[in-house]
Amino acid sequence: MTTKYLPGLEGVPATQSNISYIDGERGILAYRGYPIEQLCQHSSFEEVALLLLDGELPSAGELAEFDASLRQNRRMKYHLKEMMKHLPPAGHPMEMLQTAVASLGMFYPSGTACLSGGVCEDLNYIHRMTVKLIARMPVIVAWWQHMRRGYDPIDPRTDLSCAANLLYMLDGEEPDPDLVRILDVCLILHAEHTINASTFAALVTGSTLASPYSVVTAAIATLSGPLHGGANEQVLEMLEEIGRPEQAKPWLEARLANKQKVWGFGHREYKVKDPRATILQKLMEQLMAKRGGQVSPLFEVAVALEEAANERLAPKGVYPNVDYYSGLLYAEMGIPVDQFTSIFAVARSAGWLAHWREQLRDNRIFRPTQVYTGEPIRDYTPITQRA
Ligand code: COA
């Protein structure tokens, strides 16, 4: 058994998976073998979710059935809404999402289907829970947007796609088709990313045969940190602090001189620009062209900072990651900054649950070892004899 400790488990395989693939040297990300560029061009979040879960692109009938069950499962018991009303409005949406998803496990008890044997074989149960979670997380996120301001939440619609319904529920207006397509692509890009911190948390929790609600709750908690999903919020605050494109370079110099991280840059896996950042940047450019240049001036600040960072950070293999441009797009949709990571979680629910299903098929509880650095065995000292 190896006792060499690798901080952050860098390079240590923690599982075998055939869900997604990253080539960090060439900037490639593929889901079930399909490059994300092609999926973003031709697919939808619903289809990608099913691809991640089942392993193959669905037939038209399979997709229609999955889509219909997602739409039907948007309705939730009013008890959950009542519970959410009692949560503090100033609380962070990711804490709320974590609380509400954990509560779903109580409002919609899953029984013992997964808890009795060493391996969960109830495929029907797994499928039903997966659909419920993917369908309901966006509803919870959108409900909270209104409830925390003291307004009644907007009911979900069944005639809209995931992305369209989320935009509709967030602001109550008929969603703009351009923004729907952009959000759909954002959801595709955030749906899965091999075994990152939150997916690892999901696997560890799933390996104890905890319920899928606990699995997703653990993953949401892990995603919330600024070194993971929470970085997209920090990026917007950072760009606001920089203020103008010409300030980007001096700001970067001062930041690096103080040995501080630049939010939205760097990735454990990618040594080139994150392919998701490239797609998101293009979406922003397309939106800008469509609107005759009328997008947030922070986009120019972001481009200037990336240029400055190309000189200072690229030599270390540090480039923009997925969180760098996503927040700018969400802001164009009117989504508040503190909801950015919740939207990430909505999309990533598909990946987390795909990994949960994969884990259950060949489960062994995670129980790593450690390198002990403490005291050798010693005798207890009575309190009266301690210095
Ligand atoms: N800004 C400035 N320097 C950075 C950096 C960043 N965002 N990310 C990495 N670096 C530098 C480190 O300082 C280190 O430099 P050194 O070798 O001179 O000490 C080098 O690049 C390697 O970085 P390291 O922290 O070892 O990489 P990691 O794999 O442990 O960390 C992240 C990966 C994502 C945690 C890290 O890049 C980071 O904190 N990024 C900012 C947060 C973020 O955007 N997270 C979202 C990820 S999708």
Jot down its keywords.
Cytochrome p450-Terp, domain 2, 3% strand, 3 strands, 16 helices, globular, 2 domains, three-stranded antiparallel beta sheet, Citrate Synthase, domain 1, 387 residues, binds coenzyme A, mainly alpha
Shape: globular
Question: What molecules are bound to this protein?
Answer: coenzyme A
The CATH architecture of the largest domain is Orthogonal Bundle
SSE-based structural type = mainly alpha
Q: What count of domains describes the coordinates?
A: 2
Reported for the largest beta sheet, the result is: 3 strands, antiparallel
Side-by-side strand order of the widest sheet: 1-2-3
Beta strands, count: 3
Strand percentage, roughly? under 5%
Number of helices: 16
Give the SSE string. Answer: EEEHHHHHHHHHHHHHHHH
Instruction: Indicate the CATH class of the largest domain.
Output: Mainly Alpha
Could you tell me how far the N terminus lies from the C terminus, measured between alpha carbons in angstroms?
Answer: 40 Å
CATH topology of the largest domain: Citrate Synthase, domain 1
